[in-house]
Amino acid sequence: MTIHTSKVKSFVSQVTQLRNTIHQIPNKMSNNAAGEPPIPDLQFSDFPEDVQLCILSFLTPPEISSFACTSKRFLTLCRTDSKLWFSLCDRRWGSKTQIAKWGSGLISFKHLYRTLQEYENLIGFWRLSSSPRTQINSPNSIPNKPPALVFLEWGQSFITGSRVLPSENGGYDVVKLPFLWMGISPKGEIVNFLQPNSGLKLDSNSIKLCEMGSGSGELVCVDVNCMGDCHIVIEERVGFGGLRNNGNGNGVSEDLIGSGSPPDRLTSEMYQYFANRTSPGGERAWRRQRRREREKQGNKKWESEHFVKIVNYCPTSSRPLQGLWKGICEDTNLDFYLVAYDDIGGIACRRIGDSCKPFSSYAPVFWTSNTTFIESPFSSEEEHIYETREHLLPPGDILCSEMESVSRILYINSSYDLVLPGLAGPTSVNPHQVEGRIWEYGDGTFGFGFLRDNHIIDLKHIAMDGCLLDAIQPL
User: Which residues form the F-box domain (predicted)?
Assistant: First the structure.
């Protein structure tokens, strides 16, 4: 039978060619002139089932659907949830999470594949784009300034969201505060829980309770809504199974795992709303309904938060400065920086903590429209500028030799005087006050400073290969 899926056909062809080559080796070494009869071409159905499943695991669901239409036997093979769809899940996410433990192992792997495919885009760093009224009740948090950086990563059978903020020990360590848990219930429902004080500590028992809808009363049931690929909103689930104290001792509404789908309930509430407005005495009923809605909103434990994804948080060979960085600032505190390349070739660096402020105050720390580096050897003037400045480092840290070796220099400008070329007068801007340098080191990191200052802020990586560096748990 001819396989119409190009990827499967190519793979089978390569395997057949390899097998023919192996069988031809003894023929060439033998003195038997007659030789062996030629080996017939192998078809996909000639392979054992485990080899077939391994080959199919490289395909996408649409390709598998096309392949299943080629014969009844392959249709049966593609419908085998415990084999084919497990292979698909295991190949794609098996090294990151324990596939068989999602939903307590009671959900279909086809459903799990679709869910994890949506979850995959959530993995990585997100920055807070709106400042909530509620604060983080943690001794490690900054008063009146919620941590703006969030890191989502794979767990055993769930996704964990953690707030990332500078530690208070004066070094490069960062505090990792888990606050969000995203999983699947044994019924296949999306279950997201959040702890407002960022003290979420889930063991195997608490995770199982959350999956069954019987979590702790300190947890808040939330929805994680995607507004496109790079914008999510975390908001408390109210009305459709929101977490609230209903007198049963577990703090979880029976609606969380009850019968009936949200669209049916929404239709019922809409019908009741318009019926109350048009029926006799409907105005009083409408006011009562509005009062109940206000009370429901007043019982919310969590203010909605908006997050924007940091797509490029690691540098590349063509963009060596881009990504998330951390460095000791002038006030000797650790701060986070985001360096991004724009569409016209410029570079801008902003503090992560400023992203949740009004846009007018989200000014860059430094910027440049010319990304041409000055290569070594440097002029005596440039060497003097670098050598006369002090590196801002944590107490007791020693500047490593690779960092002392400056490989390239880039000119930058300060954010205090952003002027349009040709519109500024000859004496309006002092170049000494706005001009600065980026010194790229031999280890791939860099430091920056301005001519008006006598120091260099050296930046280090926050994450490497998807892992958070220098992360410590709160006491």
Answer: 41-88
Query: Which residues of 227-354 form beta strands (DSSP E)?
Result: 231-236, 305-309, 323-328, 334-341, 347-351
**Domain tally for the chain?**
3
SS3 percent helix, strand, coil of the chain, rounded to 5, is 30, 25, 45
Residue where the block lists tokens 């505090």: 175
Read off the tokens for 270. 């809409």
Please report whether residue 465 resides in a domain. Answer: yes
| 3-class DSSP state of 391 | strand
85 and 170 belong to one structural domain? no
Q: Which two tokens stand for residue 433?
A: 């006050």
Please state, in angstroms and rounded to a whole number, the distance separating the CA atoms of residues 13 and 18: 9
Centre a 10 Å sphere on the Cβ of residue 393 and count the other Cβ atoms it contains. Answer: 18
Has residue 50 got a pLDDT over 70?
yes
What is the per-residue pLDDT across 150-196, written as a single tens digit (0 to 9) for each?
999 999 999 999 999 998 888 899 999 998 999 999 989 999 988 87
Q: Rounded to an integer, what distance in angstroms lies between the CA atom of residue 104 and that of residue 114?
A: 17
